[in-house]
Amino acid sequence: MGLVGPAGTSLEWHPKKSRPVWSASGPRPDRSSRTVRAPICPSVEHATEGGVMSSSARRSHGAPARRDDGMTLIEVVVALGLFLVIAGAVLSLLGSAIRLAKEDRYRMVATSLATRELEITRDAFTARTGGPTSITTNQVVNPNPLPGGAADRPLVVDDVPYTVTRTAQWAQVGSTAASTCDDGSTAELAFLRVRVEVTWPGLGERPPVSTDTVMTPPKGTYAQNTGHIGVRLLDAEGEPLVGTSVSVAGPSGTTSGVTAADGCAVFAFLPEGSYVISAALAGHITRDGTTSKTITVLPGQLVRTVLEYALASRLVVTYQTTAGHEPKGATEFPVTLANSALVPSGTTVRRGAVDSSGTQTVDSLWPYPAGYEVWAGACTDSDPYQNDQARELVAAAPGATSTVTLPLAAVQVTLSGSGRGNKDVTATRADDAGCPGGASIALGKTNASGVLKTSLPYGRWKLSANGRSSERTFDWAGSYPAAVTLS
């Protein structure tokens, strides 16, 4: 269909040109006319320049308005991201609130358990029967279970296991030290210092619930002629050994306790006398290679001592000598170990037996990080360093075994005379400046021919058998095996 224009002309839609055009019938309108016509269809805003549609009109005719397009994909993604951020923040705050509520409940229960432990301890301390003597001093764990529970087991409340640790130590009058092991040597112990800590799973690095108090016994509760021991246990790095069982044995019998968080255990009101202190640490030794220490308790005094423990190191010695002259079966065979930390001389001598395979084991060595310098013998002239030779260096790791091979001087001892078979042969060195304490080695027995093939540390030795003897020096540069006749 067409629309009638001025002077009989009409405007029709041209399908090929995709726009309205004036029909050819009738005269065309005056192009100089600038009259604006009314919109000719809903999608055409207006026509100018003689009825030709403007470019903006054509564009609007072909596409709907942008406000009708809806949200683009980018807008949807941004909106979803904002929603997720806000939702995550809300959930995080909600989770934190729940965790804080649980933490508050755990701490409330822990505080109640700590107060309960203190009240039980105070009741026992002030009881007419037992009184202060009934309190287990030093550290104890879960000593008073809840109804239906068992001693030394966690206290379970609402399916949460709580561990109650109580530390009770006697302290002297006017003490300001954090631990009794830090008090002075002269001490009148006047009150019991009690600390209770409660922990539970999931506590992590947060501090446990703790509470402290002091308890004073009635005057005259304990005899005045008693003394006290404060012992601190440390490991090889100087850190306290916490929760370690330690005992003291003396005139009053054996008393045991458990070390507190600072490694301290206090044994109060002991009769005077000599006491042996030891810790229940399997395979551990002190710096001097022992497992205990002896001290003397005097009336009115607090004896303080420190024991360092570490897993012992072990050394297996093999001897280098002429074949067939290994010192098999020799006893009291000396081995010297050197380390600058050894007091007082920087060396220590270990004596032991050489087994049937020709090796010797040296046990209970402190695991110094620098290890040890080692050589056979106990005297100055057996020291390789004094003879322009190198000492053997061995490692000493905690709980480990090291091996070393040490050179010896091979010797063939021949005993003359009748009845020379099966006789004991010994090598001795007098106690002198070059050999403090001397040395004596049981080398073994002669065979039926009166001969013993063995070896000795380098140096000067006196060989004896069946009342006969001979003194010889075995130099590092000598030729071996050396023949020695006892006649």
List keywords for this structure.
487 residues, mainly beta, Immunoglobulin-like, five-stranded antiparallel beta sheet, four-stranded antiparallel beta sheet, 2 helices, 40% strand, flat
Explain this structure.
By secondary structure, this protein is mostly beta strands. The protein has four domains: 3-66, no CATH class; 120-309, Immunoglobulin-like, CATH 2.60.40; 313-406, Immunoglobulin-like, CATH 2.60.40; 409-486, Carboxypeptidase-like, regulatory domain (Immunoglobulin-like). 13% of the residues lie in helices and 40% in strands. The protein has two helices and 33 strands. It has helices at residues 55-62, 73-126; strands spanning 3-4, 10-14, 19-22, 47-48, 52-53, 138-141, 155-157, 160-172, 189-199, 209-215, 226-234, 245-250, 253-258, 264-271, 273-279, 284-285, 292-297, 302-308, 310-311, 313-320, 333-338, 347-352, 359-365, 372-376, 392-394, 401-407, 409-415, 424-429, 439-445, 451-456, 459-465, 468-474, 482-486. Strands 6, 7, 8, 9 and 10 form a five-stranded antiparallel sheet that branches. The protein has a four-stranded antiparallel sheet with strand order 13-12-15-17, with no helix packed on it. Strands 22-21-24-25 form a four-stranded antiparallel sheet, with no helix packed on it.
